Amino acid sequence: MLFDDREFRFRWIPTLLLVLPIVFVRLGLWQLDRADEKREQARTLTERARMPPIELGASGIHPQDLRFRRLRAHGVLEAEGQILIENRRQGNRIGFHVITPLHIDGSDVRVLVNRGWIPAAADGGPTPAPVPLGPVTVTGESHIPSPPALVLNADSNAAKGWGKRWPYLTVDLYRAVAGYPIQPVVILQDPQDPGGFLRNWPRDLPKEGMHIGYAIQWFAFALISFVLWLRLSLVRRPQGGSAE
Predict the structure, then answer these.
(1) Rounded Cα–Cα distance for residues 76 and 196 (Å)
(2) Residue 185: which of 197, 169, 198 has the closest Cα?
(3) Most CB within 10 Å of its CB: which of 2, 126, 148, 174?
(4) Which of 180, 178, 179, 172 is nearest to 155 (CA)?
(5) Four-CA torsion 194, 110, 151, 149, nearest 10 degrees
(6) CB–CB of 78/100 below 8 Å?
(7) 221 is in which domain, residue-wise?
(8) Tens digit of pLDDT for each residue in 22-77?
(9) Does 115 lie in the same domain as 35?
(10) How distant, in Å, are the alpha carbons of 114, 172, 174 from that of 157?
(11) Residue 197 maps to a domain
(12) Using CA atoms, how far apart are residues 73 and 138, in angstroms rounded to an integer?
């Protein structure tokens, strides 16, 4: 096989490079599969968010069955169990998220309600966060809070010394402090519901773009390594004859 003044010659070391394009192509196809999975997850979660709200009562529900579902609960908000989550940002301002337990009607079960964001006062403390009196109906999106990636003390009893201002929230931490049954989810209260504060809840749907970008990179690496193999396998023909 001739290419101008070069010809293809089998050489062991360049041929070993053929493994790389195969590996890179497989990695690229894997990333495309991951993008398809994320696209399907986003579609499923969007459909679930459009379904009628789940009515929360005394019965326990698996948290994964509540993901991205709208929820509704009836009961009384309890001021004595209210806590504030520190260092929550809205734009350039620092404040707190207000978490209030709702005592669900006809049961001893509570569900935590994130009633929104309040700004910090000049001294760094919270501004007032009054709790509505009497029966209420709370609607909103489900949220399953998780701890930060780096936690020095991840024990479920860690929050017992935090008082009313917490650095972060999980249902397990609150359950250990409260000592009563709690639904395994937090309701992000709808902005139009009364008795709350600034509510701007971003929706964190699975995103496919990152995986498509990675796939393009792997396919580019495959092309580069193939061109490198081809370049190393083409040798210059001696002048006046074929290469030996």
Answers:
(1) 14
(2) 169
(3) 174
(4) 172
(5) -60
(6) yes
(7) 2-43+207-236
(8) 899 999 999 999 888 888 877 877 777 778 888 998 887 887 778 778 899 999 99
(9) no
(10) 21, 9, 9
(11) no
(12) 5
